[in-house]
Amino acid sequence: MNILGKKYHDVIHFPEHPSIEINYSNTNTYTKCRSYDAKAMNQGFVWHQIVVQHNGKICGSDAKRDILDALFEAVNNEEIYPIAYRRGPKEDCFLVRQCQPALDKLFAQNLRLRLPNGHSISILVQLNVADFHQGQISPITQITKALSQLYNSMERYNGEDGILNLSQFGRNPNFADVVVNLGNSGVLERICNLIYSNDEKFRNVNGILMKTNGIKTLAPLKQFTGVEFAILDLRDNKLRSPERITRELLPLQADELMLAGNPVINTSKFPDCLNPVLKNFKRIDGIPSENYSKDYSPLNKNGDKDSEGYRVDWSNRADINNFEFSNDWHAVMIPDPEHNHTKDDIFNYFFITVSPTFSDFYPCYYKFDKGEHQFLVRQCFDQIKHLVEYCNLEIGIPRIVQQTVTEDSDLLPEVEMYSKLVYYLLMNISPFKTGQVNPLECIDKALNRRYNAVDRVLNLSNFQDTEGLQNIVINLNSINILSRLLMQASKKFASSVVELRLAHNKIVFANVPKVLVLMGNLKAIDLGNNWIHHLKDVNELSVFKLKCLRLDGNPLCSKYSFAGEYIEAVKEIFQDLENLDNIEITTKGNLSSQKNYLCDVAAYDLTQEFVTRYFKTFECVKDRAKLKDVYHANAMLTLTCNYFSANSTQKTRARIRVYGDVSRNILKMRDLPHAYGPVHYGREEIMAIIMSLPDVSFDMLTFNTDTTIHNDRLTAITINGVYLDQAKDHATDTDVVMAFSRTFLLTPVKHFLGPLNKGTSYKIINDQLNILNPTAAQTKIAFKYLANDNIADDENEISLKTKESMLIMLQELTHLKSVWCARCLEDAGWDLQKALEVFIGLCRNDEISDASFM
Q1: Gene3D superfamilies, alphabetically (predicted)?
Q2: In sequence order, what DSSP letters do the residues of 588-651 get, joined into one string?
Q3: Which of 15, 360, 507, 790 has the fewest CB neighbours in a 10 Å radius?
Q4: pTM score, two decimals?
Q5: CB 96 within 8 A of CB 50
Q6: What is the pLDDT of residues 813-830, one digit of tens each?
């Protein structure tokens, strides 16, 4: 127990309740402990205070939410209501009362909260900070008041009257000074009890909406056993377990149950897990319970007389005008009896016929059934009429025509339609019902899932693969839909977005600066691997003064024969650009060291996996034996060492000589016929050489990786970087920073591996290692970033950013290499003044060689 001697008062004022006067003189304060004085817990008539000691490490708009989420997770569903939550630069605090079970759970966890990012923070519990007086704010009173107001304003929903709307209940105006979290089962149980026990009001309740409340369990709803609701809306909560949701739904009954937006929807056992409770509900998410399945769509007839629809084809195309004001689903039926075309093929062809001047077109519930591609659309009559009257209900199958393209040609590849697919429509096949796919709502939720507030990145790459878009096709090839999507994102996130990623979306035209105007801080855009053919289709984005742009993987890149020509063309438009296609550009418009350049994006995974695994294993001699299986039986290794240090110690020179003994530097050889000697053949000989080299530490942040060849027979990977040749005794020797360039040739030896038969095994057939002196730029940044960058629990621990600043300052003052600067600072406990004293001491004792300086 740690009793703090605070001797001051504090007063918390409320607009509609008497103030709470806090007096710390008689407070018992606990931190980092698992027990407390039971006598100090004077339940019912006193207030307690919880202080969250985040030390300024949790900031931003989500800080309060993250802390509260951690609190409710820690109390494990025991009832608790934070009152008068106050944010501070280093501490947040709030009041609680009548919550001993919840406090016991906090003490059981040593008064620590684990945040969503995995870090933990300490809390103080201050018992008896204020007396409770009649009329002061009470959570139960506020909940009762909120429910009373909702009883008096019950809604009509889906044609049903008497619907009690508890959606986003925690945001009710009555909870301005109290946190009411229905994700806490204790709080949810209290609310269900209050609803059910109010006989006079509850008899008029015909349904309950509990959408978007963070609910994790339905167990508290057992209060409503035997009650037959018209609607029970549980959408967009946090229900995860198929087994648990089935068990907890057993006592509940409703005509309509809504579960969309819960994580359980995406589990493999859903919806089969609901079979035992289907009899309790007539419809689930707008689908008849007897038809409820993962592949259901309103196209499923199953004897439903309303699902036949009215057929419209070329013979009766004038009848399309009868459906101008229909709000129902319409089906597009494309016969393909031999299944010659995939889903992607069909939509690529179909969207060619869709007009860019009419309504947005969102195909929903696609499936291939009985030799037909089928999907649904609604609320796009002008598009449907265009498809009937102008396109004749036909889809052209395109073919690219070979043509001669001159150097100055600015034309798209010529395309001709060499065959057609004739299709028909089934109009009014099914009425739209709540819970079915609503494209704009789906897009809004997908945007929320794709925004990273920490990095300020809106990642819309492969947008179609976003969770929640399984039953809808988003065609970003359409400028209208792309503009609508980005306008929606711009309004939602505004200037908070710094980087926008739009790769792999089939985009052909990206001149949309007007819809992005609210993203005033946008500095990076990724448009890689789209269908953009010309720079003029992106040039208007230059108004954002972008620092980073990615265009690789687009057809426009093939127009340029040389990298310099391509860079010059892009820089002419984007004059502030510093990074193009993940490669730095110098002020002269040329490439600096090419980092992670790949000739083929298909080599990304192979390169990353190989480089990381190989060099991590190579670092320690005792681990290098594992590399034997990586080399081909007939592999070849050559090593050259051209490292020179004028002021190295005798032991340092001896270590460097190990490389020279196996080096093959032809320029320095006196006897050229012996040039074949240092070429090492075969797996055994190569491993003997590798095992003889010293322990090293690689700085992988300095690695520049080029993959210049990648095909089905050979992959060539070149890595440039620095490593630390480690001294065994730092008292008499020093570490040496050395640069290297290493080229591997890999060949595939086995295919169709792994459970999906998509894996390939590679072997090294040629390994060329060149060791040399690091450049000045490499020396300056080598080992600058330290491995341990986790947030510390101790408020006195220095942040990574501060350490980096101190490292730079010491380097400027002493001209030491980064490795030695870090060592001086670590020995001095990251005190800059003491680090200078350590440095002076080392110099005085001649413990630093000239090679340790820049």
Answers
A1: 3.10.450.50, DNA helicase RuvA subunit, C-terminal domain, Ribonuclease Inhibitor
A2: TS-B-S--SEESSGGGHHHHHHHHHHHHHHHTSGGGGGGGGGGEEEEEEEEEEEE---TT--HH
A3: 15
A4: 0.51
A5: yes
A6: 888 777 778 778 878 888
